[in-house]
Amino acid sequence: MANGWSIIIGLVVIVAMCLAAWFFSPKGENQVLWRSSLILAIVSCYLMWAITFLAQLHPLIEPRRSDIRKEYIHH
Amino acid sequence: MAPTKDTPFRSAEMSMVQLYISNEIGREVVNALGELGLVQFRDLNSQLSAFQRTYTKDIRRLDNVERQLRYFHAQMEKAGIPLRKLDLDVQTLAPPTTHEIDELAERSQSLEQRVSSLNESYETLKKREVELTEWRWVLREAGGFFDRAHGNVEEIRASVDNDDAPLLQDVEHNNSAADVERSFSGMNIGFVAGVIARDRVAAFERILWRTLRGNLYMNQAEIPEPLIDPATNEAVPKNVFVIFAHGKEILAKIRKISESMSADVYSVDENSDLRRDQVHEVNARLNDVQNVLRNTQQTLELELTQISRSLAAWVVLIGKEKAVYNTLNLFSYDSARRTLIAEGWCPKHDLPLIRSTLQEVTNRAGLSVPSIINEIRTNKKPPTYLKTNKFTEAFQTIVNAYGTATYQEVNPAIPVIVTFPFLFAVMFGDFGHAIIMLSAALAMIYWEKPLKKVTFELFAMVYYGRYIALVMAIFSVYTGLIYNDAFSKSMTLFRSQWEWDVPPNYTEGMTVVGKLRDPNYRYPFGLDWRWHGTENDLLFSNSYKMKMSIILGWAHMTYSLCFSYINAKHFKKPIDIWGNFVPGMIFFQAIFGYLVVCIIYKWSVDWFGTGAQPPGLLNMLIYMFLSPGFIPDGEQLYSGQKQVQVFLLLLAVAQVPVLLFLKPFYLRWEHNRARAKGYRGIGERSRVSALDDDDDGNHHGNGRQSLESEGEGAAMIAQGVDHDANDEDGEHGEFEFGEVMIHQVIHTIEFCLNCVSHTASYLRLWALSLAHQQLSSVLWSMTMALALGKTGVTGAIFLVVIFAAWFCLSCIILIIMEGVSAMLHSLRLAWVESFSKFAEFNGWPFAPFSFGTLLEENEELKEYLG
């Protein structure tokens, strides 16, 4: 079930991913590049997902349409 | 935590070094350093003109060799011999010795002589050939005139006698005269025969007619084949002419005029037998000349083919050698100790490498005098050297296109690697288009090596940015999944959170409204596909995307602002933290951070569950400024909102004076305190470069002085006039409160206004993603939707045709055009909205002396390299 707690669960997951990215980035002079890029990418993607999820969490409007064929109405 | 190695996080630590190289191995050292490409030399002879420098003579010599090589290339092009290009990825050229260069110079000298003498003789022969050909034509055509003219003697005589007779009357009409055997010589008539360019004939005729007052008889015929002018190698159509006239003087005049009109006069014998002999002779000579000509050409081509095999390598060698001498010209020469002294910038961490290279060169030369490299202290601003690799190169380029980062500040390209493609993807979010882009990017990376050789400019540009395209495509796939758009269609990946609330008497055309399937179930990833195609789709997605733009913008700007903290900390300027970063951050968060919190809060409250009316956030923000402490009825977001908003507003307003005054007054206080303690400004102390004085004693004196004051055995170099570093002595020297204050006022106004305008600027994320989505759905409905509506065989054919059209249009409009536009907008967000928060862009780029960049950037060398 996906409900409001998903945001928190997702947060925990990405924190774990970020930690993994921090510790498993290849050593060397480009380590800082790996770390910053991976963590930034993970956080950005999480942010986008969380925003989308939150926007639909307590919807203020419902979808409405009037061109549905009878066979498809219960899908 | 001092970094032990240079990372891409900030520009490499640089040091000014001084090299003492024995004069004999100067060239070898510079050669080795050029291969290394890590040192940027300063010009130590800026007071000397180009002609006064030590190695100008060598450069002249190499210029000459270069000219000879270019001459060979031109000759090869003329002869149509292809050049064997040099592929530096495969072949490496060993650094040449002076002896080899001399040999090359000599060889090219002798080759030039040989080629040019071959060329010369070829041209002479060619000229001879043309002359003979012309003569042959003259003989042939003039023979015809004579045969005809012999019949017209009477008529000619008549025209000579009678002034009224038409001068150039057509010969054909009067062919009836009988006295064929009578010779011209009896009449004292002479003639001139020759060849003239066809476009001059009219002028020639007119001039003759005017100067001789009509006392001539001219005949001409066109030569059917155009003759090649050996000087210009162009084909010129020409005419043969024969002019008959009376009297020696007139004939001499005609000859002169012919010469002045650059006509070629040939001797033709009157007697037809002699003429026949002449023709035979000419033919025989022509044959000989042609034979010799062929041989000469073969030899020339052979010679040039030989040259073409190694020409590219020679050009590269000479180009490098010239660069070496140009660099040597920057060095100062100590004639007393026969030492070259060089100064330059190099990365501090690469010093051991440079040192060992020097050592190696010295050892190889078997010199007992060691080469010395010394790090020296300087107050000059070091250059910004940002190391890149294959992946970061393109990202660094788009940052450098904006400006060169200040020495050692956070490399702005670091956040750009993710934020730029990510913000692009927010605007470009379509799964289908992203997959096509991803395939293109992957293809370019997979066939990296062969595609590198493509010289088509537009493609080369895309190829250069292939890794940017890759990251952009990957993020676009993700955002496409979030937006649930694939070519404007939605994907039903998960169960929808909505179901249609169907009335029992449902007929088609009735409006149905969705209801939540399960109060505890929400669409887990991305937008619910049930929204797709609904009447109020845009209403929902606009609200969602607008808020998302604000939140992403806030996150991006907050993140960027944090870098200013890192910068201030690195440069050890706590006043920048307390006077700029902290108040700025509080100001920004009190207004826009609060807005973001409100957006998220509003989303997370079940408004229908609580029975309250959801308030509009836009009005809330406007009222927060216009009438602080007033919340209209039914617009309350949470209890205590009034107090919180007033507090935040006051907090934000309170930051403005802090931003305005803290830094300038602190700097003034610090300056006054230093003054009080007896320190002087840096620029007020006079220091000179160790090199400025040739006098040794003076030099050591200076060194000792700095030894005392700095506690380090390094001479200070503070002498000002230098073309590569901005002369900042004035700024260093005087502390001017007014200037600092004005600067800070501008900064404050800019920062506060930018907080508002930049946040609004992020709404472009919404606008562009909306435009992209709508455009692709319009394209679908105008092409594929029509085709899919048809049935039968025609429908099938129609579908195939329409699919091709739809696919092409998708690629051109939606991927290329929309992609470029989204990229430009994302670029702006990086350059303006993000960089203005932390980056100074006050540096100057490190441009080391390197053969690699030399060969890459030289346009002339490009055509020799494969």
Automatic annotation (TrEMBL), chain A:
<keyword id="KW-0812">Transmembrane</keyword>
<dbReference type="GO" id="GO:0007035">
    <property type="term" value="P:vacuolar acidification"/>
</dbReference>
<keyword id="KW-1133">Transmembrane helix</keyword>
<keyword id="KW-0813">Transport</keyword>
<dbReference type="GO" id="GO:0046961">
    <property type="term" value="F:proton-transporting ATPase activity, rotational mechanism"/>
</dbReference>
<feature type="transmembrane region" description="Helical">
    <location>
        <begin position="37"/>
        <end position="61"/>
    </location>
</feature>
<keyword id="KW-0406">Ion transport</keyword>
<dbReference type="InterPro" id="IPR008389">
    <property type="entry name" value="ATPase_V0-cplx_e1/e2_su"/>
</dbReference>
<dbReference type="GO" id="GO:0012505">
    <property type="term" value="C:endomembrane system"/>
</dbReference>
<dbReference type="GO" id="GO:0000220">
    <property type="term" value="C:vacuolar proton-transporting V-type ATPase, V0 domain"/>
</dbReference>
<dbReference type="Pfam" id="PF05493">
    <property type="entry name" value="ATP_synt_H"/>
</dbReference>
<keyword id="KW-0472">Membrane</keyword>
<comment type="similarity">
    <text>Belongs to the V-ATPase e1/e2 subunit family.</text>
</comment>
<feature type="transmembrane region" description="Helical">
    <location>
        <begin position="7"/>
        <end position="25"/>
    </location>
</feature>
<keyword id="KW-0375">Hydrogen ion transport</keyword>
<protein>
    <submittedName>
        <fullName>V-type proton ATPase subunit E</fullName>
    </submittedName>
</protein>
From TrEMBL, chain B:
<feature type="transmembrane region" description="Helical">
    <location>
        <begin position="467"/>
        <end position="487"/>
    </location>
</feature>
<protein>
    <recommendedName>
        <fullName>V-type proton ATPase subunit a</fullName>
    </recommendedName>
</protein>
<dbReference type="Pfam" id="PF01496">
    <property type="entry name" value="V_ATPase_I"/>
</dbReference>
<feature type="transmembrane region" description="Helical">
    <location>
        <begin position="548"/>
        <end position="566"/>
    </location>
</feature>
<keyword id="KW-0406">Ion transport</keyword>
<keyword id="KW-0375">Hydrogen ion transport</keyword>
<dbReference type="GO" id="GO:0046961">
    <property type="term" value="F:proton-transporting ATPase activity, rotational mechanism"/>
</dbReference>
<feature type="transmembrane region" description="Helical">
    <location>
        <begin position="795"/>
        <end position="817"/>
    </location>
</feature>
<dbReference type="GO" id="GO:0007035">
    <property type="term" value="P:vacuolar acidification"/>
</dbReference>
<dbReference type="GO" id="GO:0000329">
    <property type="term" value="C:fungal-type vacuole membrane"/>
</dbReference>
<keyword id="KW-0175">Coiled coil</keyword>
<dbReference type="GO" id="GO:0000220">
    <property type="term" value="C:vacuolar proton-transporting V-type ATPase, V0 domain"/>
</dbReference>
<comment type="similarity">
    <text>Belongs to the V-ATPase 116 kDa subunit family.</text>
</comment>
<comment type="function">
    <text>Essential component of the vacuolar proton pump (V-ATPase), a multimeric enzyme that catalyzes the translocation of protons across the membranes. Required for assembly and activity of the V-ATPase.</text>
</comment>
<feature type="coiled-coil region">
    <location>
        <begin position="101"/>
        <end position="128"/>
    </location>
</feature>
<keyword id="KW-0472">Membrane</keyword>
<keyword id="KW-0812">Transmembrane</keyword>
<dbReference type="InterPro" id="IPR002490">
    <property type="entry name" value="V-ATPase_116kDa_su"/>
</dbReference>
<dbReference type="InterPro" id="IPR026028">
    <property type="entry name" value="V-type_ATPase_116kDa_su_euka"/>
</dbReference>
<feature type="region of interest" description="Disordered">
    <location>
        <begin position="690"/>
        <end position="711"/>
    </location>
</feature>
<feature type="transmembrane region" description="Helical">
    <location>
        <begin position="586"/>
        <end position="604"/>
    </location>
</feature>
<feature type="transmembrane region" description="Helical">
    <location>
        <begin position="422"/>
        <end position="447"/>
    </location>
</feature>
